Amino acid sequence: MEPIGLDDILGRERYGAERDLIRRRIIDHKRSRRVQVGDRLTFVFEDRATIWYQTQEMVWVEHITDLDAIRGELAVYNQLLPGPGELSATLMIEIEDQGRVKEELNRLIGIDEHVTLEVGPDRIPARFEEGRQTAERISAVQYVRFPLAIGARGRLGTGAPLALAIAHPNYRAHAEVPAPVRASLAAEVADLAAPTRAFRQVRDGV
């Protein structure tokens, strides 16, 4: 997927003027990228639009104007984009009881070995970014990738069932991917231009 470039970042004045509209557009877009699995895990599949928005918000909130500093942020966030033949997602562990956050998070240590994307008959284990959990602790935000073989990509594009499964001893859940999310991911896999079109819609409303 084409990385976000410096030319894609809006100047502070324009972004400030359009920020509310852009925020509404990214919320709409993320509805077609979000999957809840059970009561605590949410996956947001990343693409150019979602990564651009995260970068643009960081530049805005942190008042970053130095071009080299912006390039540095782009280098960090572009790493979250899916590579060729894969899907990538941010996995958020959401615990409402703030007094039990550490305890509940610790119960999910080892989850990196128990997340699977199901594409028809294919079972694709998630690849978790290293450094976000140890034997003693786990971050509430994880970054995962699902490498799709050619057969799985073809099945995704032709309507095979799509689901996410968690088989951790302390958290077992299974969720069919909603139709809008499935359509968005299938378009991304089948059409290299789809992520750029979504990005233009979020950024420019066109």
- % residues in beta strands: 15-25%
Strand ordering within the main sheet: 1-2-3-7-6
Question: Which residues sit in consecutive blocks of at least 5 with pLDDT less than 50?
Answer: none
Radius of gyration from CA coordinates: 18 Å
The helix content, as a percent range, equals: 40-55%
Largest sheet: 5 strands, antiparallel
Rounded mean pLDDT score: 94
Number of DSSP strands?
A: 9
Helix count from the secondary structure assignment: 7
What general form does the structure show?
globular
State the secondary-structure class.
alpha+beta
Number of domains: 1
Explained architecture:
The protein has 7 helices and 9 strands; from the N terminus they run αββααβαββββαββαα. By secondary structure, the protein is of the alpha+beta class. It has one domain (6-204). The chain has a 5-stranded antiparallel β-sheet with strand order 1-2-3-7-6. The longest helix is centred in the first third of the chain and has 20 residues, at 12-31. The radius of gyration is 18 Å and the shape is globular.
Keyphrases for this structure?
206 residues, alpha+beta, 5-stranded antiparallel sheet, 4-stranded antiparallel sheet, 7 helices, 9 strands
